[in-house]
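Query structure, 203 C-alpha cells:
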C-alpha cells in the first residue's frame, strides 16, 4: 500500500493498490466516528442513529463499490466480506423486499420468490430506491429500513450471512462502507430478517 499526504488537513489516507486493466481502486484507512460532512439526509440519519444508540462500528471511504472486483478491494481493506443489498419490488411496485446476500453469489429472482412463496419480483429502479431507502444506485443498505418510507419493506437475509459475526454494508453512499456486528445491526433496526438460503455457488 502506498501512503498519501493528508487532504485539506484531514486524516492520512492509504491508497490500496490492486492493479487492474481499468484503474487502481482507492480505499481509505479504517476510521471510527461519523464523517465530518454528510452527503445525504439518509447518511446523516444512519450515523446519528449509530452514535445515539452507542453502537460500535468502523468505516472506510472508497471509490464507488459497485462491481464484484470493487467488493474484493473493500473486503481487503476491512478483512471482512462485504454483502450485496438489493431492493426488490412486485409488478405493481406496491410491495418491497430488502435482500442481503453474498456479494459474490448470483441472484435469481425465481429462486428468491420460491424461497418466500411469493410471485416473481424485479429490481427496484433508482427512483424507487431513493423514494423508499433514500439511497441512489450502488448504495442500498439495511440502514435504509430506519426510514419511515421503508416501514413496510420486508427484510430478508441469507442464513449464512446472518450467522457471520460482522458484515460490511454501505452507509447510504456508494463511497462509504461500515463494518458492524449483525447483532448490533438487528438491534438498531429493531427487527430481525427472514432467513433464506441462496443455493448459487460463490464466484
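Result returned for the query:
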Amino acid at each position: 500500500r502506498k501512503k498519501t499526504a493528508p487532504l485539506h488537513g484531514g486524516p492520512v489516507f492509504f491508497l490500496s493498490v490492486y492493479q487492474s486493466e481499468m484503474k487502481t481502486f482507492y480505499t481509505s484507512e479504517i476510521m471510527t466516528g461519523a464523517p465530518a460532512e454528510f452527503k445525504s439526509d439518509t447518511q446523516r440519519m444512519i450515523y446519528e442513529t449509530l452514535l445515539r444508540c452507542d453502537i460500535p462500528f468502523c468505516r472506510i471511504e472508497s471509490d464507488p463499490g459497485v462491481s464484484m472486483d470493487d467488493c474484493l478491494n473493500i473486503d481487503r481493506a476491512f478483512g471482512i466480506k462485504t454483502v450485496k443489498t438489493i431492493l426488490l419490488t412486485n409488478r405493481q411496485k406496491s410491495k418491497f423486499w430488502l435482500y442481503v446476500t453474498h456479494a459474490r453469489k448470483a441472484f435469481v429472482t425465481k429462486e428468491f420468490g420460491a424461497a418466500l412463496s411469493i410471485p416473481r419480483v424485479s429490481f427496484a429502479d433508482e427512483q424507487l430506491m431513493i423514494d423508499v431507502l433514500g439511497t441512489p444506485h450502488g448504495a442500498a443498505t439495511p440502514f435504509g429500513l430506519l426510514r419511515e418510507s421503508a416501514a413496510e419493506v420486508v427484510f430478508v437475509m441469507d442464513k449464512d450471512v446472518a450467522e457471520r459475526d460482522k458484515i460490511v454494508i454501505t452507509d447510504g453512499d456508494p463511497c462509504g462502507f461500515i463494518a458492524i456486528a449483525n447483532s448490533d445491526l438487528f438491534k438498531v433496526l429493531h427487527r430481525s430478517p427472514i432467513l433464506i438460503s441462496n443455493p448459487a455457488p460463490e464466484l
